[in-house]
Design goal:
Elements (H helix, E strand, L loop, with lengths): L4 H22 L6 H7 L4 H19 L2 E5 L1 E5 L27 H13 L4 E5 L8 H14 L4 E4 L2 H11 L3 H11 L14 H7 L6 H13 L4 E7 L5 H18 L2 E8 L6 H5 L8 H15 L6 E2 L2 H13 L5 E4 L6 H5 L8 H10 L3 E4 L8
Parallel strand pairs: 1-8, 1-9, 2-3, 3-4, 5-6, 6-7
């Protein structure tokens, strides 16, 4: 059956709109959230063109170097008052699997990290009902006493808000106290998707979009750089994904405080959210390719470091993302407990393993600091 003239024109217009957006992105023009959402629906040849465009923009912005950081994760407790449906890590205080690391245990983990020549200690944990500001300060002080020169990357906006509420303090006062104790930068986790419709489903008791933004801006204002993250692949729409990226871009225009944008595919295997919405257990690679590519195009010139997660996607999946706009493989970690609890299988990579992945695709591996100075 032949198409009518109006239908043929509509198809041509739709096709030309997509290619126009890629041309504009290649020319360095800013894409709106609605335009990003259109690109996030790419399939077939359009998807190939999207990936190639993002890869070329990546090459122009940051070249062929792929970076990684030698770091260690320390999850100091899995006890949490939260009720996030995407989390399989949290435990109630009375749970037999609940734990809180002692200062001696943290010190031991830091010493192990020093033996591996790490430059960063990343610290996050549950919102423990008995923890106050002094407990968080003690964690930082323990790390800095053990390794004075190491970079402490710790405490998400959710944790900072929790301390402020618990102690009846202002956000800035909490951040200043943490910084004085030795906090060097803040992980921009707890962002999930920065749309309150989504948050009302997946983490209704967690900080709001507005609170996350307010906390991040306060960190930047007080001289603490942060990462920015997105946890994708659950109940959000392409437009909500693009709006999330747009929010990150607008913050960066104002503060210039983000070091990187980290894409975290949702591992749902052991989670309530996964069961409730019958989600696939691991992130979809095609979906991931679209998002990494669109993030590169929407953030180009504002946040030029796009990190892909080998923890979430596996080594081969992460390699694919390096061909779709990403230029950073994250850290060595040494241990990873949150994704592992949700069903992830890989929780540690050596620098040599990360460099091998990079060399396999013809790129140049370079170790970096937390703030992207090359080592």
């Amino acid at each position: 059956m032949s198409l009518s003239l109006p239908m043929r024109k509509a198809i041509v217009l739709k096709r030309s709109r997509f290619w126009e957006l890629l041309q504009r992105a290649m020319a360095g023009e800013e894409l709106s959230a609605e335009e990003g959402a259109l690109l996030l629906k790419a399939e077939g040849k359009k998807l190939q063109a999207l990936i190639q465009t993002a890869d070329e923009v990546r090459r122009r912005r940051v070249g062929d170097i792929v970076t990684y950081v030698k770091n260690r994760n320390i999850n100091f407790t899995n006890v949490c008052i939260g009720s996030c449906k995407f989390c399989a890590f949290r435990r109630n205080p009375e749970d037999p699997q609940a734990y809180v690391l002692s200062p001696e245990q943290i010190e031991s983990k830091v010493n192990e990290a020093l033996e591996a020549n790490v430059t960063e200690i990343c610290i996050q944990g549950g919102l423990h009902p008995d923890f106050g500001l002094e407990d968080y300060l003690e964690i930082i002080q323990t790390v800095k006493k053990t390794a004075p020169g190491i970079h402490v990357h710790a405490f998400s906006p959710a944790e900072i808000n929790y301390i402020a509420e618990k102690e009846d303090m202002g956000l800035e006062e909490v951040i200043v106290r943490l910084k004085e104790a030795g906090l060097d930068s803040v992980p921009g986790t707890a962002a999930e998707i920065l749309v309150d419709r989504v948050r009302s489903i997946i983490c209704p008791e967690k900080i709001s979009t507005e609170q996350w933004i307010k906390t991040i801006k306060a960190c930047h204002r007080l001289g603490l750089p942060t990462t920015a993250t997105m946890m994708y692949g659950h109940v959000e729409t392409p437009l909500e994904q693009a709006r999330h990226i747009s929010i990150i871009r607008e913050i960066q225009k104002e503060t210039h405080g983000f070091t990187e944008f980290v894409l975290l595919g949702f591992v749902s295997r052991n989670t309530l959210l996964g069961r409730e919405f019958n989600l696939r257990p691991y992130p979809d690679l095609v979906h991931s390719l679209r998002l990494h590519a669109v993030a590169r195009l929407m953030l180009a010139g504002y946040i030029d470091n796009i990190q892909t997660s080998w923890v979430k996607l596996g080594p081969r999946g992460a390699q694919l993302m390096l061909k779709a706009g990403a230029n950073d493989l994250g850290g060595t970690l040494m241990e990873e407990n949150i994704t592992k609890a949700a069903g992830g299988s890989l929780c540690s990579m050596t620098a040599a393993q990360l460099e091998h992945l990079i060399l396999e695709i013809g790129r140049i591996p370079r170790q970096r600091t937390t703030t992207y100075d090359l080592i």
